[in-house]
Design brief:
Order of helices and strands: HHHEHHHEEHHEHHHHHEHEHHH
Helix content: 40-55%
Oligomer: single chain
Number of helices: 17
Largest sheet: 6 strands, parallel
Length: 391
């Protein structure tokens, strides 16, 4: 068995996501409207900061009055990448990059240090052996949740998540287990570590393929209009990748037609989101979705990275409308599916630099802008302070 092939009621815990506070609820709102600038001149940056400061995670923690970010980076492999050659890089790069994160040498490692973010790197489904981690030099926290390694002996997951062009990515129970671990990890970050802003990132060679397949179902678009170059595919490889994504989507729709129909009609329930992610996702996507849901339940805002992160969380934001207001679009990536997913969720990106690195890097850059906005809020003069006439 590779997961449910008909609409069955899975056993999954309900999400308790309350509506977030508004910017006007922030204790800093009165100061914001008195700063020496025209009304709304920097609203795109100040509005999310004010909401963060008004959030339950901020109000209940010692970090009240500031931004206390953390970054979770989930790594996993995909059999579709190994079997169907949808990436410009070999699959071994996933494990090698995990070691690079822990050595402090990756882009996300640098950005996390600059932003003062605690970085948690989780191996949730890396298929090849990790290089020697004894040389770990950064202060990143490493978690080993590797489900494939536990089950590889009986052939259940021969290479990370299964080949989604042939079968479901994950057994439903394994998807749900990883989702719940991500959910608990985020809630612990808020309750024990005072985190009030969570950045989500991933590492997984080939994972734009499952992300694009999910996006195709959610957006009701043919993969030809939303499949990008990923790690740098040429035109011929991109055409091949498009064909693979189309095959993945067709398989899912044939096996779970009711779930696909629920999303196409805009009326999915929580179980549909779980079934979609188990069918077309992967270990790191399930973990990111769980972390986003757990953070929102704890009253903590989530900064989305690129297309993989957004595709993982979008099914839950659609099925549970109260989740979407807790999401901040860190950036819009170069992947064509990403911008369309953000529009579908009514999210506007803070950064638009045509990035396609992943790792949480675009989201981390956006955190820097939010920190700048907080500095302005704290230290910029008001009209009264500066003796400037207001409008």
């Amino acid at each position: 068995m590779t997961g449910p092939t008909a609409r069955t009621p899975p056993t999954c815990a309900p999400l308790d996501v309350r509506a977030p506070p508004q910017a006007t609820d922030s204790p800093a709102f009165a100061r914001y409207v008195s700063l020496t600038m025209p009304p709304g001149a920097m609203a795109t940056l100040f509005e999310p900061v004010l909401r963060i400061l008004a959030s339950p995670a901020s109000i209940s923690s010692a970090s009240t009055g500031g931004i206390a970010p953390a970054a979770f980076l989930f790594a996993g492999d995909h059999s579709v990448a190994k079997n169907k050659a949808v990436s410009a890089f070999p699959c071994e790069v996933t494990a090698q990059m995990v070691a690079n994160f822990l050595a402090g040498g990756a882009a996300m490692s640098v950005l996390a240090r600059r932003r003062g973010m605690r970085l948690v790197v989780c191996d949730v489904g890396v298929a090849t052996p990790l290089p020697n981690l004894a040389s770990k030099t950064s202060d990143a926290t490493f978690l080993d949740w590797n489900v494939p390694r536990e089950k590889r002996g009986v052939g259940e997951y021969p290479f990370g998540s299964r080949d989604i062009s042939e079968e479901n990515a994950l057994d439903f129970d394994d998807h749900l287990s990883v989702f719940e671990r991500g959910r608990a990890l985020a809630q612990e970050a808020v309750s024990r570590h005072g985190v009030n802003l969570l950045v989500l990132g991933e590492m997984g060679i080939g994972n734009t393929t499952p992300a694009t397949a999910i996006a195709s179902v959610l957006l009701r678009e043919d993969p030809s209009s939303i499949t990008g170059v990923g790690t740098g595919l040429n035109i011929h490889a991109r055409r091949h990748k498009t064909d693979v994504v189309r095959r993945c989507v067709a398989r899912f729709r044939s096996k779970l037609p009711t779930v696909a129909l629920q999303f196409s009609q805009g009326r999915p329930v929580l179980e549909d989101a779980h079934l979609l992610l188990a069918g077309l996702g992967g270990f790191e996507l399930s973990a990111m979705a769980g972390a986003a849901c757990g953070a929102a339940e704890a009253g903590c805002y989530v900064v989305l990275d690129g297309v993989i992160c957004t595709a993982a969380i979008a099914p839950f934001a659609i099925a549970v409308p109260s989740l979407a207001p807790w999401l901040i679009a860190g950036h819009r990536s170069a992947e064509p599916a990403h911008g369309k997913l953000l529009s579908h969720l009514a999210l506007s990106p803070l950064v638009d630099l045509n990035l396609r690195l992943g790792e949480g890097s675009g989201a981390a850059m956006a955190v820097g802008l939010l920190q700048d906005a907080l500095a302005l809020l704290d230290t910029m003069a008001t009209f009264s302070d500066a003796g400037v006439s207001g409008g």
